[in-house]
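Q: Joint fold for the lines below.
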Amino acid sequence: VFAGLVSSLYRYVVERGYTHLYISGVEKRQGLYEELGFEPLGPAVVSGGARFVPMAATPDRIAACNAHRLELWRRRLARLADGAGQPVSLLPGPVPVAEAVRAAFHRPPLYHRGPEFLALFGRVRRSLGRLVAGREVALFHGSGTLANEVVASTLAAGRQPGRGVLLVNGEFGRRLERQAARFGLRPRVLTWPWGRPWDLDEVAAALSEEPTGSWVWGVHHESSTGVLNDLPGLVRLAGRRDLRVCADCVSSLGAVPLDLQGVTLATGSSGKALGAYAGIAVVFADPAAVAGLDPAGVPSYLDLAAALENPGPQYTFPSPALCALAAALDEYTEPGRAEARYARYERLGRFVRRRLRAVGIEPLADEGHASPVLTTFAPPDGESSTQFVGRCAAAGFLVGGESSYLAERRLAQVATMGAVTEEEVASLFKSVGCMSVHLSPVH
Amino acid sequence: VFAGLVSSLYRYVVERGYTHLYISGVEKRQGLYEELGFEPLGPAVVSGGARFVPMAATPDRIAACNAHRLELWRRRLARLADGAGQPVSLLPGPVPVAEAVRAAFHRPPLYHRGPEFLALFGRVRRSLGRLVAGREVALFHGSGTLANEVVASTLAAGRQPGRGVLLVNGEFGRRLERQAARFGLRPRVLTWPWGRPWDLDEVAAALSEEPTGSWVWGVHHESSTGVLNDLPGLVRLAGRRDLRVCADCVSSLGAVPLDLQGVTLATGSSGKALGAYAGIAVVFADPAAVAGLDPAGVPSYLDLAAALENPGPQYTFPSPALCALAAALDEYTEPGRAEARYARYERLGRFVRRRLRAVGIEPLADEGHASPVLTTFAPPDGESSTQFVGRCAAAGFLVGGESSYLAERRLAQVATMGAVTEEEVASLFKSVGCMSVHLSPVH
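A: Joint structure:
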């Protein structure tokens, strides 16, 4: 109940956009108030037989001091909602969000030219830049695919647009190929079967035939297959030949530690492993990548140089998605919390793969290249993707498999992005028939 | 208090995504329950001395039967929030939203490939098509500018991309010109000073020099100046010469009755006069406009033909914006309500212009071409846009003037889009000094 009270208070404060809470705290209970995040502003004031301490707290402090309580309450509500028909999302989007993120999303909208919005816009860009070890950040209003359009249009505006190597080992690599073609890019395309990682020897051979200044582009975490490709390895290879690396990090951003210092252009999204809502397309850029570009042929909505230069958004931008992303990034920017998040994702991913193997289901990606936040596999007993997804839904879990690229290959997937808990994942395996048989002892 | 109880119940039900409410109604109060939207499911059941009637209601029925109560409560909260520092938005976005729209936005996110989302996606497309008297509708994830990018890329993929006439009489027309140029379009550009409407005689002369199959493109409601251009007149002109008409209806959609039957391509947005949230770019299309196009050069994210053909979204799509738009469209699709909305907007616009003139401020647009939902004017007493916006903000009202295209011309603007009330607008004139002096008697 106490967790619920704190949670309601917190949500109320954030939704109304209050910046400070003031209380007159009964002196005897000062410890309790401090534990909640309040700090004394001065000495106690006597009023009749009681002594009241003037105290204040900010929403951020309340969130920090009550993280565990807020999370407990969120889970409790989620469980209640479960019972009432709200399924647990184990999809790669929309992902379950933490209570602080949800509350931020529900604040009254801000004007995208106003000072509060602009300050937040700048803060989010800086936080994202730090998260990847230092890159300029441009934000666009749209999906991760939009961010990749920005990369394609930027490459196409370059001096050697016809050159380049594209790495394809799944649906999202294939999509990059289609996007590149629409912008007139004609790269050499290296492909591998679904579930196989990039073969860096083959990549090295292809890159050796590229002229200096050319580029190589691929999907870091190929979320159709659950393969996490070796981006640092690619950066080392390309660095030797002074080639530019572009990476689709849409579903790896926030999932694994990212160092994009050697990457020229990379993309991300607000609605994946960072644990916020869809709506913001992120482009990380080496400023040198846009220097000397001719923007005349770049569509206005995709203009990276303009977006990097402008302190605010170029066009209408939804503040709810931005506020939620800012709250989600707080999880990564406070010391030690990013590492804890990555470790939690790693643990959840291992747990999923172990439980699948325990019932005889082999993940598509081998253990050495498995993404922590998404596992793709063939449903058991020859079942179709649609049947399997339906069976999970009946048990209260949304899993992937309805996209045509999965259904056609009889694949399904379980994502563990955002505020998913191990309990929730464990209950998937308990609740869905033929996922729970032959279980080896847990832990 | 009763309005508050109904409102809280309604919000709870919608946020949880419940589809039906069931009650055991005390028979004596059956009339009250029916007024709230409940319908009896069968005869009363006796329990001791009381008789209970099994009754059920859907959220939609509750919204319909309690529209006035919900609106009263929203205003009351808005007034309270006012006092607590939440300003009234008189901006052309974000716009104030009705309670049903807000509640729909805050439902738990839906998977954009799931059946519930797809059904809603189809419903919103059909509702929008009916709203403009019958056009195919494609939805994209982004702002109104994105929708115009789709038009530019579609025109550029046509057989005569180099031809066309562009009508420019404000900032958004200028933006279309820039967008068109980026796609390699080189139209003839007709321009008029800020605040002046299209001159259809000049347009007719220009169109007479265009070959059959060419196009003319302009902004219907030029929301930099508050001018509502004569789109029906343009359609008649172009029809005589068999030219295609394209129209930016981003800020006229939902503001005035639209008949787009003679328009080949038109654009709209969820976050303007329809009264929902930013996030959805709308393109209305004559299917003939995309027949025979070569999509090879159209960026994937802007592919109109693919979006028209696909029953769902091409890429990740935010369900909160879609749910909110669906709720906002309910205001237009129920018989008689669209007309009531247009009449309310018309009344609000006249009210704003009359009050401005009463203090000696002449709107930029003449009365015959004034938009009902937005009025642009020079702040009184030679004050800068920024000073005027600041003074309104201090009084609790957000008005336009911070965008560089307004500030540079010493202009400000008051929009009355979404769930703005006449009371709120009246209180702007009461609260902001030098807007309230010399007031003529009201009404």
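Q: Anything notable?
A: Chain B touches chain A through 60 residues (CB under 8 Å). The longest strand of chain B covers residues 50-57.
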